[in-house]
Amino acid sequence: MSETLQFETFSGQPYVISYEPTDRTDTIYCLALHKSGSVLFDNLVKAICHASGRSCVDVEVQLFRQGLNFSHCDHHLLDFCGRPGFVYSGFRGLWQLMLLRRFRDSRKLMLVRDPRDIAISFYHSMAKSHTVPKDGAVRELVMQNRSRAQSQEPSDYVISGGADGVLQNFNAFAMISRNRASGEWQVYRYEDVIYRKLDWARDIAARLDVELPEDVIARIVAKEDVFPEKEDPSKHIRRVHPGGYRDSLSREAIAHIQARCANAMRIFGYEPD
C-alpha cells in the first residue's frame, strides 16, 4: 500500500510525494537527460520494479505533475531522496543530489544521447509535444519555452540558446560521471540501446538487482518498442532513429552545439561532424 508525504515549497505551496514502503537497504538512482529517451528509460525502470515488487519513486515526475521542479523545494525533499532501499527514477538533471552521501555512495544508471539529436528533439518538444502541467511555476516556464520555440526555426532556436539548458545538463552529466568521488555509474547511450531494448531491459533488471522471467521482460519491452512509420513533430515519440539532426539543423547550429559540448561529447564517444 502506498504512502504519501506532504511537503511545502520555499514559497509555502504544499505538494505531495507518494511511494511504496520498502525493507531493502540498497539504493539506486536513475537519471536521463531531457530528450535522451528519458520517458522510455523511466517506463522500463518503473515496469521492471513493479513486476519484481521493488519500490520505485519517480520524484521529479511527481513534481512536474504538480507544476514544480527541484528548484522550488527545500532540503526536506532532498532528505527524502536520501532514504535507503528505493529505486529513485525520473531525474532529468542532477539538481542537488550530489549533496547526498547516499547518492554518491550508491549505484547510478544514466542515459545520454547525442546532444545534436537532443537539441532538435528539445525544439520540437517545446514547440508542440511537451506535456504542460495544469498550473504552477513549471507550467509558466514550459509555456514561455513553447512561445519562443514556435516563433523560431530550429537552427535559430539552437543558435540563440534555446536548448542551452539541456546542453549544460549534458556537460554536467559527463563531468560528474567521470568524477571518482561521485561513485558508481552505469552509462547507457541511446544510440547503443534503442535497437536493442530487450538486452537493455535485461541489463537494467540486473543492475536493479531483481530477477524476472524472460517472458515478463519481453512483455515490458513490447509495450515500449515503438517506431513511428514517419516523423511526426506533434507527437512525443517523433522519430526515434539517431542522426536526425542532420536533416533539421544548419551547419552553424551543429557547430554551436559541438562547441558548447566538445569535451562532454568526447567523454561519451560522440564524434563531431
From TrEMBL:
Taxonomy, top ranks, is:
Bacteria, Pseudomonadati, Pseudomonadota, Alphaproteobacteria, Acetobacterales
GO molecular function (one): sulfotransferase activity
The identity of this protein, by name, is Sulfotransferase domain-containing protein
- Taxonomic source organism: Neoroseomonas alkaliterrae
| InterPro entries membership | P-loop_NTPase (IPR027417)
